[in-house]
């Protein structure tokens, strides 16, 4: 039995004696975060390396993908601290600054991924549905870099308050790192948490769905261009739509639904302890799904970029031939 380190209550508003059973965090989160670290770190490094080696032929989509991989890489580098924290039973020995930084990197990666995936989807929509549009014809790599700069600024502005609310505290004679906010700030965090969900998830998600609806309508038209090139573009756009939709459905949607419900419950007075415990457990159980976007994003890259998909195989063949020659 342990007192939850992110669902404690304001004095006089919520029950003050709720003890939550959260042993599942020690069993679930360290293995999942270890898998994300072991797979997401090398995959994103490979994506960054391949895009940088092809910088002469850098497309706008590749620019967005590069920034997406950078966001994922920053997050995966923070996972060792979280793995140790949850493996040791919510004990945080790394200090207040590291706590704030880790929580900020998680939400910056989450909402940065959402916005960069939206940019990639909008770029694909323009290329298929409006190939003669001025932005598509004349907006080159530098325009894409400007958009990425604006995305990073927007993400920093959206997620910086998480570094303010997140802090360390003492629970049952041990130091913990609060995920959302300290207990006394639960009601103050509520408006910000809801606003972050609306601005950082719902609006981009609605825009992305609108793009893919128009894209699907265009691809299903019978009077569209024909030929192998047009067919390949249609197939590429369809693959990207499926993978991006799957990423949102698996990683982002469950996390934001449970987080919103959890924020509402923990900010409501008179809620029974078992109900608080249930919502806390469901919300924290969806964190791994949100973390897996750091693995799904590079898979999206290799799944939709044919020219990059074959390069790792060519590199491995070259290394294998080289090793065989040296072994003779």
Automatic annotation (TrEMBL):
GO biological process, one term: positive regulation of ERK1 and ERK2 cascade
Key words of the record: Cell membrane, Disulfide bond, G-protein coupled receptor, Glycoprotein, Membrane, Receptor, Transducer, Transmembrane, Transmembrane helix
The organism of origin for this protein: Loxodonta africana
Topology relative to the membrane: Multi-pass membrane protein
Residues passing through the membrane, by range: 32-52, 64-84, 104-122, 143-170, 190-216, 237-257
Origin organism lineage: Eukaryota, Metazoa, Chordata, Craniata, Vertebrata
Gene name of this polypeptide: P2RY6
Pfam families attached to this UniProt entry: 7tm_1
Name of the protein: P2Y purinoceptor 6
Keyword Disulfide bond in record: yes
One Gene Ontology term, aspect cellular component: plasma membrane
Subcellular location, record wording: Cell membrane
GO molecular function ontology, one term from the record: G protein-coupled ADP receptor activity
Superkingdom of this protein's organism: Eukaryota
Broad class of the protein's primary localization: membrane
Start and end residues of each G-protein coupled receptors family 1 profile domain: 43-301
Gene3D superfamilies: Rhodopsin 7-helix transmembrane proteins (1.20.1070.10)
InterPro entries (alphabetical): GPCR_Rhodpsn, GPCR_Rhodpsn_7TM, P2Y6_rcpt
Ranges in coiled-coil conformation: none
Record has Cytoplasm as a keyword: no
């Amino acid at each position: 039995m342990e007192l939850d380190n992110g669902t404690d209550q304001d004095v006089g508003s919520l029950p003050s004696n709720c003890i939550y059973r959260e042993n599942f965090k020690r069993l679930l989160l360290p293995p999942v975060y270890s898998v994300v670290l072991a797979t997401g770190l090398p995959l994103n490094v490979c994506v960054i390396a391949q895009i940088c080696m092809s910088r002469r032929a850098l497309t706008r989509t590749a620019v967005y993908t590069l920034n997406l991989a950078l966001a994922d890489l920053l997050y995966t580098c923070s996972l060792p601290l979280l793995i140790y924290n949850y493996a040791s039973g919510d004990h945080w020995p790394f200090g207040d600054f590291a706590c704030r930084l880790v929580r900020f990197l998680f939400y910056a990666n989450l909402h940065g991924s959402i916005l960069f995936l939206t940019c990639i989807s909008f770029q694909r929509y323009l290329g298929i549905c409006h190939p003669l549009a001025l932005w598509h014809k004349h907006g080159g790599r530098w325009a894409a870099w400007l958009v990425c700069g604006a995305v990073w600024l927007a993400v920093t502005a959206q997620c910086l308050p998480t570094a303010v609310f997140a802090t360390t505290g003492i629970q049952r004679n041990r130091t913990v790192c609060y995920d959302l906010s300290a207990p006394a700030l639960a009601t103050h965090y509520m408006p910000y948490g809801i606003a972050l969900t609306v601005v950082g998830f719902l609006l981009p998600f609605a825009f992305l769905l609108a793009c893919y609806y128009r894209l699907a309508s265009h691809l299903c038209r019978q009077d569209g261009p024909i030929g192998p090139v047009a067919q390949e573009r249609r197939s590429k756009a369809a693959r990207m739509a499926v993978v991006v939709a799957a990423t949102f459905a698996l990683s982002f949607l469950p996390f934001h639904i449970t987080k919103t419900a959890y924020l509402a419950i923990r900010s409501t007075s008179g809620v029974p302890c078992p109900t608080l415990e249930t919502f806390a457990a469901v919300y924290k159980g969806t964190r791994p799904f949100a973390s897996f976007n750091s693995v799904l994003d590079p898979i999206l890259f290799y799944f939709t970029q044919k020219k990059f998909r074959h390069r790792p195989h060519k590199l491995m063949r070259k290394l294998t031939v080289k090793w065989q020659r040296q072994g003779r």
